[in-house]
Specification:
Chain lengths: 361, 361
């Protein structure tokens, strides 16, 4: 192997791969980055068993070949190298890296010991990267943290002909995002939330539609310059449709950002356990209030109301904040009752729907 | 108490005080901020037993008075408040805070329970704030971390008529910074490194000379808008003068930044324990090299040499990096031998001197 690459491009790719390669790996290969020079590109890969990422960057290849080196060290060296370009050269069982006046020789691992890319089934969909990124990153907050049942820690991708949906729920709240005009074969795939985060990160700079392949418990997402293979979650995603109310007693329309900021202020004063914030709707306004260990807070906001007022309802402040975080502009909070689920929708982003269950009084 | 203040100014002052007030305090008062409205200002104070900081900000005072509230919560509320101004009002044993449409009532502590400002002796010096900040922040890195003897974790301020010095050492390296033209009574004061950091932070925006008062084991530093009282360290600071060599066998002159960056690159490859980097000086250049668990690295730099070449010496890379970090432009590394202390000086910053002991081969 003998290749020359632009330092900045190599550094960016190395940084993406370092995110996949754990610093304390259960297998030696998991802490490495695999490099293969071929044609006019350098293929770089890292894997951690759950997630496999392959990137390709343009390279002047003088001699094809492959090797594997410690991912984190390689990334740090490339980031700190002094030259505009980096020369990579195989030398015995080492990688020589040169950039400007700086030269280093890294002990390399046998590339044969690096795991083969996982086999994945046929193409199930083609999705524009920005739609995929927006859908997943908008709903991801509603996935559960560690302490919950595994399936709640995933984001479900539902593919249909000409549409798809991303949905996440932790059993207490739900977020979904529908995209029209892009889809594929009818299939539901549950992606671990952390893998979903990495997919968002790597897909956000893509421009061509992403090809999705699925099979054998894996999802491969392929862009122009990357291929990510995700181990899907097993088990059945909760039947969330039944918790989304269809009839409402009150709808309030407001601007997402000032409303969210008011809830954020009140959360500071709320009870630490319940994070409870009370909303009292009356004609054309809402009064937010809370009370906790250190005192109480109150704020009045102008909103458009439609339906039954006065109306009182309480929420976990954190749930409201997170449900509003991705939104800008006119937003609707629709109540089906004081103790039954509420729905949040956005006028600017009609694909989004969030469900939040009020706190019992 | 009844006062109106600008929100931004209040938020900045609260943030400085929160840094002093520990979140898990050994005494209830330590987690609070004390507020006193008087004349045309709001005086704010926090203390943690080691460090006491009082700030004053302009205020429209309608009614004088004092109270104490949780520092961290107060800071968060002020930062997130929606208005340009904040109204503070005592109400029974609570503080009412209003800003825009947001209103809150915080349980307040009896201001009498807040510790009195410590007594400190007479003025010992007047020092321009920028000179104080530059001197302390430049040498601070050489103070020891937790594991060492207490006195090594301090920065010594040495005051003389018309000059002063800041010096820190952990026993393996030393940094000192001399300032001419400002000083006071001849006295040596050892400031805990963490208190020195806070002093730098609060003094860096001051413009008028700082008044230093000392006595009873304390140092008070007074600016236009702040008064910080620091509990000084007890014990005798090491007699560091004897480790500073006066005669050299070789001097190398180079630009601080590219030299430091080269050492940073090589450190990535150095042995993790020793952090060893080897320097081989020859006429007009130095070759830096290292070798560790993962491989080896090498870089050649052009330097001006004066004295005995070729010459080999090894250092802890981290020590070199930190000694060079505050410097820009032409810098000199002067060697008294391969196993005796070296001195680093700066042409742009002649007050600075660092001493680094080479690693034994």
């Amino acid at each position: 192997m003998r290749a020359n690459v632009e330092r900045k491009t190599l550094a960016e790719a190395a940084a993406s791969l370092e995110r996949i390669a754990p610093t304390r790996a259960s297998q030696p290969a998991y802490s490495q980055v695999y490099l293969r020079a071929e044609d006019d590109r350098l293929v770089m890969r890292a894997t951690n068993g759950e997630l496999d990422l392959e990137l390709a960057i343009p390279a002047e290849v003088e001699e094809t070949g492959a090797l594997a080196v410690p991912a984190n060290l390689f990334g740090q060296l490339v980031r700190s190298a002094p030259g505009e370009r980096v020369a990579l050269r195989e030398s015995g069982s080492a990688l020589e890296l040169e950039s400007g006046a700086f030269a280093t020789k890294l002990t390399a691992a046998d590339p044969e010991s690096f795991p083969e890319p996982p086999e994945v089934g046929g193409e199930v969909a083609r999705i524009p990267p920005q739609a995929m990124v927006r859908a997943i990153s908008t709903v991801r907050y509603a996935a559960a943290h560690e302490e919950y049942r595994a399936i709640f820690r995933g984001v479900q991708l539902e593919l249909y002909p000409q549409r798809f949906r991303a949905v996440a729920t932790d059993g207490f709240r739900l977020a979904l995002y529908d995209v029209e005009g892009a889809g594929g074969e009818e299939v539901k795939l549950v992606v671990p939330a952390r893998s979903a985060d990495e997919l968002v990160r790597v897909a956000k700079d893509a421009s061509e539609p992403l090809a999705l392949r699925a099979g054998s418990g894996k999802l491969a997402v392929e862009g122009e310059r990357f291929r990510m293979v995700i181990s899907l979650m097993e088990g059945t995603f909760p039947d969330y449709q039944r918790v989304i109310p269809g009839e409402f007693v009150l709808a309030a329309r407001f601007e997402a950002e000032p409303f969210r900021q008011a809830v954020e202020r009140l959360r500071l004063l709320a009870d630490r356990q319940t994070q409870r914030v009370d909303l009292v709707f009356s004609e054309g306004k809402v009064t937010l209030g809370t009370e906790g260990e250190y005192g109480q807070g109150r704020e009045e906001l102008v909103v458009e109301t439609e339906g039954e007022v006065p109306f009182e309802v309480s929420y976990n402040a954190q749930y409201l904040i997170e449900a509003l975080k991705a939104l800008r502009g006119a937003t609707r909070l629709k109540l089906s009752g004081a103790a039954t689920p509420s729905v949040i929708t956005s006028e600017e982003d009609p694909g989004y729907r969030a469900v939040v269950v009020p706190l019992r009084v």
